Amino acid sequence: MAAKIIDGKAISAAVKKKVTADTAAFVANTGITPHLAAVLVGDDPASQVYVRNKERACEACGLKSTLHRLPAETTQEQLAALVEQLNNDAGVHGILVQLPLPKHLNSTPILDAILPSKDVDGFHPENVGLLLQGRPRFLPCTPHGVMKMLQHENIATAGKHAVVIGRSDIVGKPMAALLVQKGADATVTICHSRTADIAAICRQADILIAAVGIPEFVKSDMIKPGAVVIDVGINRVDDKLVGDVDFAAASEIAAAITPVPGGVGPMTIAMLLQNTLEAARFSQKAG
Ligand code: GUN
Fold first, then answer.
1. Catalytic residue among 16, 54, 148, 160
2. Ligand 1 center from residue 74 Cα (angstroms)
3. How far apart, in Å, do the first and last CA atoms of the chain sit?
4. Active-site residue 7, yes or no?
């Protein structure tokens, strides 16, 4: 039987509807519009699309967004100075530096410099630590979006074996941290490029989450019949977007699967809006 397609567009629309209503109430109560400052360095085409989509979503949901475009030859010092300026701007509630940065820039000190209370990506080490300890402040948007999709689809994680392919700081590691938390209660395995017999491990997964960045890496022989398959990959191949999962083959064997596009991608943006509203709320409590 063909897998159920998990509709990320529809689920993200529901999240955005709630963010829109909550934002309107926040603005009415405080007179303050939540404000996201996005920083884009260079002209990576995919990053330009992502940032534009984030801006549009802010606008559609009643949040303010400002895009700071810096040229590809921006220095580490110039980028750090902009982050500092945004940290000190009380009118900015959330700061997002789009990754990847051009190769000559080191993202670590930049992400470390973002005020943890404005870190709507959840990448600052303080926020990563809080997440790991089970007392999260900002949840990283993509893993949070995946959890939201699972909840929306009534897919239980407790006692299930979740296998995460990929160990990035943006997706793989925080995804595993969320799944293993009390409340989610999954048993989690992280696979990566040095994992031996990755197919055999993936075949044990009740929930398989692919975040490797390799087009159609997950083939049907890596999927347990009836598993839930979440595809975080967005790869451009011959001008077409494909995920990290061989969708056609996987949907013959999985119970449920996310498409690319229209799966996890829209969820990431919805969770970013939620975090930006949350950051504006923090600023009110702190101020
Ligand atoms: N690049 C790919 N995903 C993300 C994300 O969630 N946040 C930022 N800042 N950059 C990204």
1. 54
2. 19
3. 55
4. no
State the distance from the centre of ligand 1 to the C-alpha of 99, rounded, in angstroms: 5
**CA distances from residue 183 to 11, 62, 135, 154 in whole angstroms, order as listed:** 21, 32, 12, 14
The verdict on pTM exceeding 0.90 is: yes
Q: What structural domains does the chain harbor?
A: 31-116 (3.40.50.10860), 141-265 (3.40.50.720)
- Kindly give the pairing relationship between strand 187-191 and strand 240-242: unpaired
Judge whether 274 counts as a catalytic residue. Answer: no
Using the CB atoms, write b or e for 184-213: b if 16+ within 10 Å: bebebbbbeeebeebeebbbebbbbbbbbe
Residues 111-142 have pLDDT tens digits of: 999 999 999 999 999 999 999 999 999 999 99
Please tell me the distance between residue 36's alpha carbon and the centre of ligand 1 in angstroms: 14
Each residue's pLDDT tens digit, 126-183:
999 999 999 999 999 999 999 999 999 999 999 999 999 999 999 999 999 999 999 9
Q: Which of 49, 96, 124 to mutate to test the pocket of ligand 1 (most atoms within 8 A of CB)?
A: 96
Q: List ligand 1's pocket residues with C-beta within 6 A.
A: 96-99, 121, 141-142, 170, 268
Query: What CA dihedral angle connects 242, 247, 249 and 251, to 10 degrees?
Result: 180
Q: What is the pLDDT of residue 287?
A: 63
Which atom of ligand 1 sits closest to the CA of residue 141? 6
Which among 121, 206, 231, 246 is annotated as catalytic?
121
Mean of the per-residue pLDDT values of the chain: 97
